[in-house]
Design goal:
about 190 residues, two-stranded antiparallel ribbon
């Protein structure tokens, strides 16, 4: 069968317990190890993560952050475009209110400098600031010479297109700046987004 390997219970001065799991004797040895986990020959157990586990966690975090960094700018541009759409829709509604009160669109006239608008109508000015703040190109408003029509254009950053609203309640998205909007307002008193 083979010889039985000696352990500290079979050494001199130790007495095996009835179940054979623990030993009694040599009080100094017992007292020095009391309350400590079994160390299997080491002074104490060391708890921690291995290098592979740490590298795996870092790789997963890096992968997730790269996905977020790719998606975030596109989503941010779409949010800005949504604000432009909303602002232009509110601008069109406010233009209708201005026309109903004054029978003219002259209060829509604004001077735009950088990101700041200066308009005679404060509601229009707030809408102009909102649209201008979410567009990377100037927000433009043209009014007919007879003040009976208007055309307003804002750039959509996320789509590289332009959004146009006019006094005939049209709203269109175009690929290029609608120059016909400006030309029609200045020459023919026929502002429109077509």
């Amino acid at each position: 069968m083979g010889e039985r390997k000696p352990n500290h219970c079979t050494a001199e001065g130790f007495t095996p317990t009835p179940k054979g799991h623990n030993c009694t004797g040599r009080d100094e040895w017992r007292n020095s190890n009391e309350g400590k986990p079994k160390s299997h020959g080491r002074e104490s157990l060391v708890w921690g993560f291995t290098l592979i586990e740490i590298l795996l966690v870092v790789a997963i975090i890096g992968l997730l952050s790269s996905v977020v960094l790719i998606v975030y700018p596109r989503a941010f541009r779409k949010v800005k475009d949504s604000r432009v759409y909303s602002g232009m829709d509110q601008f069109r509604t406010q233009a209708f209110v201005v026309y109903e009160n004054d029978e003219s669109y002259k209060d829509l006239d604004c001077s735009i400098s950088g990101a700041k608008c200066s308009c005679s109508n404060k509601v229009v000015e707030a809408l102009c600031d909102e649209i201008q703040g979410n567009s990377d190109q100037p927000f433009e408003i043209w009014i007919n010479n007879d003040e009976q029509g208007y055309c307003a254009v804002a750039h959509l950053e996320g789509r590289e297109k332009f959004f146009c609203v006019d006094s005939s309640f049209q709203a269109t998205t175009t690929d290029a700046t609608p120059n016909n909007c400006k030309a029609a307002c200045e020459s023919a008193n026929n502002c429109g987004c077509e």
